[in-house]
């Protein structure tokens, strides 16, 4: 993976974040047929609209790993609020099984920054989630 610097009129940056977040009560929502594909499509659309580059994304049965590259103006809570809010509404509308839950995602999440050195390691870790168990 090649790290791409992001350019604006006044900045050059390389900001990568590794996110991990879970459905409420760690429910195994990605075992429901079609949820993972719909979720990934929605997230790709959301990120494209908001200038967030997805470097890697993988869903396990009860959590999501995302590795993204953003501009410095993008705030961390805003990324999670956007992704969780939009996907919660749309997935619950598409899948009746998910309507029973009071909310789809927990309010919490893990985030870690990554520079040049550890970006390859995190990308490998996210990409190999399904093959490690």
- Alpha-beta content class: alpha+beta
The CATH superfamily appears as Transposase IS200-like
User: Which CATH architecture would you pick?
Assistant: 2-Layer Sandwich
Amount of beta strand: 15-25%
CATH topology: Alpha-Beta Plaits
Continuous helix count: 4
Average of per-residue pLDDT values: 90
Order of helices and strands: EEEHEEHHEH
Number of individual domains:
1
According to CATH, what is the class?
Alpha Beta
Main sheet properties: 4 strands, antiparallel
General description of the model:
- By secondary structure, the protein is of the alpha+beta class.
- Helix content is 38%, strand content 23%.
- The protein has a single domain, classed as Alpha-Beta Plaits (2-Layer Sandwich), CATH 3.30.70.
- Strands 4-5-3-6 form a four-stranded antiparallel β-sheet, with helices on both faces. It has a two-stranded antiparallel ribbon with strand order 1-2.
- Helix 1 packs across helix 2.
- The longest helix has 19 residues, at 76-94.
- The mean pLDDT is 90.
What's this entry about, in short?
Helices cover 38% and strands 23% of the residues. The strands form 2 sheets. A 4-stranded antiparallel sheet has the order 4-5-3-6, with helices on both faces. A two-stranded antiparallel sheet has the order 1-2.
Keywords:
133 residues, alpha+beta, Alpha-Beta Plaits, four-stranded antiparallel β-sheet, 6 strands, globular
Blueprint of the fold:
Blueprint (H helix, E strand, L loop, with lengths): L5 E2 L4 E2 L1 E7 L13 H15 L3 E7 L4 E7 L5 H19 L1 H4 L10 E5 L1 H12 L6
Antiparallel strand pairs: 1-2, 3-5, 3-6, 4-5
Helix pairs in contact: 1-2
